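Q: What would this chain look like folded?
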Amino acid sequence: MEFKVEERKKQLETALLTAKTNLEQATKAYEAAEKQASEEAEKKSEALKKDVEPDESSYANELAVMVKAKKELDAAQAVMTNLVTRPGKGTSVPRPDLAIKPDQLAKTVALGQRLYENKYGCNGCHSIGKDGGKVGPALDRAGFRLNGTWVYRWLKNPQAMNAESRMPALGLSDADAKAVTLYLTTLKSMTTEEDIQKAAAAAAAEKAEAEKAAAQAKKDAATAEKTKK
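A: My prediction, written as structure tokens:
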């Protein structure tokens, strides 16, 4: 599957229009509720012969809905802008929080794989094993080669990482970028016998170093005990 830019653009345009409509409706509801509260306060002021402030709690729900609708519109607009303008070098992406609860990891990785294969069609350009495109680099060993923070930032804005990149800014939300990043960091296949041998050698060297450190620590502890005596 390929990432269809025009199709994605239409989806985002629809989402943006919906967000605008929701904000307009929420704003009208808020203004009507606020007006009613003001009118009721004026009536009470006349009846009591003293100033009475409008009851803000009477339109608190409408205000909350309007604020939420505004945030959703801002988010929809940001995603659309990211897709159509290709943010480019100089537009930095904040350092992401990739921490996740252990019981949510498998579910999020599975979501990331679905997003990779279906929603964003990353396999149209990238390969994993024998499947996928050849336009972009293979991602079999992305979990070994690439840092999670770097992957997230690349997904959000490729041109900020490499101004000459042919990869478009796909308009990933923060949540989608996190899910795809976590999926990619699980890809650690060993594609050749040489890779396997290197990994085994590295593991053996690490084990030997750990055993050496443990032996030295034991020796130091024994020496310290003798010194005390």
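The longest helix spans residues 5-48.
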